[in-house]
Specification:
The complex is a heterodimer. Chain A is mostly beta strands. Chain A is built from no helices and twelve strands. Classes of the chains: A mainly beta, B mainly beta.
Chain lengths: ~110, ~120
């Protein structure tokens, strides 16, 4: 069965600092990978996705993620964090064939301090 | 496009009552998902429809939960009778499943703003 692990429940960074959120997945074949962001009281918004091709994926709001098959990882990065980035971030994995079932990680809550 | 629309945004009900959550997916999308989000269990997929047909309902917790999709533009999730442990935020999401021969793959899912259910 597919699964996702986000080892960091909560991360605090200073505004302007760089950010890396960790995500490890378990899936037997090439996965579909996603990062979503959830602001308080809101639904989930897609930041970026990886289906195939270039392993470095660019997303919205200045985020990027790199798929590393050897490490089963799909870490999210941003070079300079803004206060508006404070939110909860979810990594998700979907199966690459047939009807897609997406499994979400438990989320990482990002706090940005001045 | 208005996105995925869920109603109500908030629902407070007494234990034992029937609760119906509603979802209107994005026009043209043919896949619809119901998720439940709690602090303890995170985001759980409850049921997945493709072309209005339930494909995977293995996440539905028990018989008190039922979901329907009578047409491509409307789905309901019903809990009868409701219990305090059903309190959670329920999300609906939709996506477009593309077919390539016998292979069906989904693009990303778009989420509604959720219904916060409180059962007292």
């Amino acid at each position: 069965a597919q699964s996702v692990t986000q080892p960091d429940i909560h991360i605090t960074v200073s505004e302007g600092a760089s950010l890396e959120l960790r995500c490890n997945y378990s899936y037997g074949a090439t996965p579909y990978l996603f990062w979503y962001v959830q602001s308080p009281g809101q639904g989930l918004q897609l930041l970026l996705k990886y289906f195939s091709g270039d392993t470095l994926v660019q997303g919205i709001k200045g985020f990027e993620a790199e798929f590393k098959r050897s490490q089963s990882s799909f870490n999210l990065r941003k070079p300079s964090v803004h206060w508006s980035d404070a939110a909860e971030y979810f990594c998700a994995v979907g199966n690459s064939g047939g009807y897609q079932k997406v499994t979400f990680g438990t989320g990482t809550k990002l706090q940005v301090i001045p | 496009d208005a996105g995925v629309i869920q109603s109500p945004r908030h629902e407070v009900t007494e234990m034992g009552q029937e609760v119906t959550l509603r979802c209107k997916p994005i026009s043209g999308h043919n896949s619809l998902f119901w998720y439940r989000q709690t602090m303890m269990r995170g985001l759980e997929l409850l049921i997945y429809f493709n072309n209005n047909v339930p494909i995977d309902d293995s996440g539905m917790p028990e018989d008190r939960f039922s979901a329907k999709m009578p047409n491509a533009s409307f789905s309901t999730l019903k809990i009868q009778p409701s219990e305090p442990r059903d309190s959670a935020v329920y999300f609906c999401a939709s996506s477009l499943a593309r077919t390539g021969g016998l292979l069906i793959s989904n693009t990303e899912a778009f989420f509604g703003q959720g219904t916060r259910l409180t059962v007292v």
